[in-house]
Automatic annotation (TrEMBL):
The keyword Transcription applies. Keywords: DNA-binding, Transcription, Transcription regulation. Residues 50-69 bind DNA. This is TetR family transcriptional regulator. Coiled coil: none annotated. PROSITE patterns: HTH_TETR_2 (PS50977). The lineage of its organism: Bacteria, Bacillati, Bacillota, Bacilli, Bacillales. Residues 27-87 form the HTH tetR-type domain.
């Protein structure tokens, strides 16, 4: 190999290393911005998450944030995806049960607790807190991934013939999710009294849904 080839290979390695370092620095900066936005989200609520307030918390110009996320909606999408990961982790940690009704009730209770523990994330993801933000295909896929545990328990019950075949899995998941979200949304809007009263309505709704889908499995 000639000296010129060796020099060329060395330059390629340096260039590649520089490109990787630049990409890594950009990703690290994105993460810092998202962390700052997430802190505002949890401490002050969705209305506090503006490019200006995030830049103030970061101690940087708004231009930097715009260069990374284009606009507030781009930042909201990243927070949405982070919320999906949080929800997925909560579902993964939910105790499993041999009885599908109990398993569904356990998962439903996890969804309620997620709405309480991460209320700002919940409002951003499902409560329309960012009026101009609409989940794109990636965000929707993140939601499906987060709901995987619920999808699995319903799908397994169908395969065992425990849920009538005329209902497809996607429709059932949407019905369950919509019903439970409805209770949480009403509670957040102040329509169901205090948290204990709202939780009681939620548990009754969850129980009715589970038993209507699986009437032969009484626990």
């Amino acid at each position: 190999m000639s000296g010129q080839d060796i020099s060329s290979n060395a330059n390629s390695r340096v260039l590649k290393t520089y490109q990787e370092a630049r990409l890594q620095n950009t990703e690290n900066l994105r993460k810092l911005v998202v962390d700052a936005a997430a802190t505002l989200l949890q401490e002050e609520g969705p209305e506090a998450v503006t490019v200006r307030k995030v830049s103030q918390k970061m101690g940087c110009s708004t231009k930097i944030i715009y260069s990374l996320f284009v606009n507030k909606e781009g930042l909201a999408q990243q927070l949405y995806l982070d919320g999906c990961k949080l929800l997925a982790n909560e579902f993964e940690a939910t105790p499993q049960a041999a009885d599908p009704v109990q398993h569904m009730i356990n998962l439903g209770e996890t969804f309620w607790q997620f709405g309480q523990r991460y209320s700002s994330y919940y409002k951003l993801m499902f409560g329309g807190a960012f009026a101009d933000f609409k989940p794109d295909e990636e965000s929707v896929h993140g939601t499906v991934t987060a709901m995987r545990q619920l999808i699995t328990v319903i799908s397994n019950a169908q395969e065992q013939g425990l849920i009538p075949a005329q209902y497809d899995t996607e429709s059932i998941v949407r019905i369950v999710w919509s019903s439970l979200h409805g209770v949480i949304h009403l509670y957040m809007g102040g329509h169901l009294g205090d948290v204990q009263s709202a939780h009681a309505v939620y548990k009754q709704t969850l129980s009715l849904i589970a038993r209507s889908l699986l009437p032969d499995h009484i626990i």
